[in-house]
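Hey, resending since the last one bounced:
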Amino acid sequence: MGEPAGIGGELTLKVFARRKELGLPPFFTIDDPNRLEKLAEQIGVSAPLTAIDHPKEALKRFSDALPIIPFPLAAPVEPGVPNSRNAPAVLKSIELAVKFAKTGQAAAVVTNPIHKQVLNEAGFPYPGHTEYLAALAEIETPPVMMLACDELRVVPVTIHVSLAEAIKTLTSEDIIERAIITAEALRQDFGIPHPRLAVAGLNPHAGEGGQMGREDQEIVAPAIDALKEKGIDAFGPLPADTMFHAEARATYDAAICMYHDQGLIPIKTLAFDKGVNVTLGLPFIRTSPDHGTAFNLAGTGAAKESSLVAAIRMAAEMAASR
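The C-alpha cells again:
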C-alpha cells in the first residue's frame, strides 16, 4: 500500500495498466479498493480491480484485472495530505505482505513509499521500512540497504545519521558485517558466484596515506583485510571521487560506501527514475522504488512509474535466482 496520500497507489495502477507492454510477472496489491477506484478515475488510468482472498488467485486474475486483497482505510484519502488515522492500515498491509512472503505464498514483497513522520505520530517506533521489516522477520543481525540499478549497486555502511555521527560511529566490524551480507546476497539473489566488492575510503583520496585522516588506515583497511581472509574478493579503500565512472564500475559488482550520500549521490545521478531499494539479509525478498511519497505530485498522474517497474522486475529476478 505505502502512504495512501502519496504517489504509491497511482504508480501501482499505472504499472498494471502497462503490464503487457512491459512484460511484467503477475503481482497483486494490498490496498483499499475504494481509494484505488477513485484514484484510477481521477488520473485517467484504465485499471479494473478484482478482489481476491488468497495470493494464488492472482495468477488467474492478473491478465484481466489488478488482483487486490481488500484492506479498508480508517479515513478518506486526500492526495498530498497524509492522515495518521490511516497509519495502522499502512503498517498492517506490510505485516500481511511479509506473512505471505515468509510462508511462500508470494515470491517477494515490493513496498510503496511510506511517510515516516505520519507513522511516528501514530506511535511507530522504527526509523523506517528496513528496521520494521527486520523486526517482522525476527532476525538479530541488522539488514542491509542496497540501492541498485543496471549500472551500479551501492551499500552504505552508515545510513540515516548525520555525517558527524557516521564518522564517529564507523567501525571495522560494521564494514565487515555489511560486506559479508552483501556478498552472500549477490551470490544467492543476483546469481553472481564470485562477487567483487569495491570498498570506498571515508576521507578524500582515501586519506592520502594518513595526511587527510587516519580512519581509512585504522578502520577501513583492516576490514578489507579481514574480508579477504574470509575468502571475499574485497579491495580498497578507494578514493570515492574516482570509483564511480564507467570504467571503474566494470571492476566490481557492488560498492561498499561509508556513509549515505557517498553511495546514493552516484546511483541517483546515474538512474534517478530507475533505482531500486533492496533490503539484504532478510529471509524473504524485499524491493522498493528508490523515491519518496512525492506529496506534491500525488493525485496528478504526473509521477513516473519507472522505479516501481524496476523494483518489480528486480524482485522477480531475485526470486528466480534464489
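The domain at 1-142+275-322 is CATH 3.40.718.10 (Isopropylmalate Dehydrogenase).

Sorry for the duplicate.
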